[in-house]
Structure of U1 small nuclear ribonucleoprotein 70 kDa:
Amino acid sequence: MTQFLPPNLLALFAPRDPIPYLPPLEKLPHEKHHNQPYCGIAPYIREFEDPRDAPPPTRAETREERMERKRREKIERRQQEVETELKMWDPHNDPNAQGDAFKTLFVARVNYDTTESKLRREFEVYGPIKRIHMVYSKRSGKPRGYAFIEYEHERDMHSAYKHADGKKIDGRRVLVDVERGRTVKGWRPRRLGGGLGGTRRGGADVNIRHSGRDDTSRYDERPGPSPLPHRDRDRDRERERRERSRERDKERERRRSRSRDRRRRSRSRDKEERRRSRERSKDKDRDRKRRSSRSRERARRERERKEELRGGGGDMAEPSEAGDPPPDDGPPGELGPDGPDGPEEKGRDRDRERRRSHRSERERRRDRDRDRDRDREHKRGERGSERGRDEARGGGGGQDNGLGGLGNDSRDMYMESEGGDGYLAPENGYLMEAAPE
């Protein structure tokens, strides 16, 4: 199609002239070689030292080894300091230890906010106090948490030693003991490796529950870790702290799982309760349907019984409707034209069968009345309806037979009386004469 374009447009599609090649003025940066070419290490072999003259390689110290070394050095320094202080320590020449040692009471684990007046008020109940010396830190001036109380009488100190141990002052239970530095030979304070304590032996299962003022040697048989050096004690504290945190996490997770199980059980109980309510409602509907079906069946049986009663009366009335005389018309005892096997004998046989059927009907009615009385005892709420059905049954399906005012028992007695005058037929209520024997 382009060949049909005008020349001015064809000139737009014409190729341009090729670009002329011009040599570069200088080399490219990657083509320049300013460095010396690579060579081997042979010229430098003579610069290396002899392996026999080289020192052995040194091994660097790891972080754990460095920490262990510093801890060991610290323990050694502390032991040297303790030994030096033990040589210099003499409680009998201590300028701070004043007064009678046998009247002085040692009180430890005191709250840092407790004042001297508060201690005096708490311990004056055991006797008059001569002096109270609270120990403070020399560097910071803050209380160290223990004090010495000197009583005027030794018996007051013994009373306080016996009764004040474990007393709660400002929210903390104090430890009460005698001054052992000047009274017990060979005793050393805790800062020099001795002293009391031993109550914090581990977790809550191995801690000692007493005040800790007695000698710890009597508790060596208790389960739990024995007294350890300073570094091991710190390490065990850290381990116990981690174990306690893990136990708390486990307990928290256990509580969460219990709460989840509780919610799950509550949901299952609600579901089970809903299911039981549905089943109860279904059972109620089923019982209601069963009662209704029983009532319908009872009504149906009543209707059938009434129809049978009405049908029996109609059969007896058929001969009169057809124009034939009843079999017991005429004087009793008179033979018919055909002799003893005539219509009179046949009528007597029919009357006997009818009497037997009447007697069996009376027995059935007595059984029904007995069953109805038993049902009435179980279902007293249906007394009115049962009474209506009894009245309907006694009325003979709405036909007035002259016995409406008589009860069932009186009607049965009247029917059972078969005198010479006749008996009452229950089907239609007519008085029928007795057949001659």
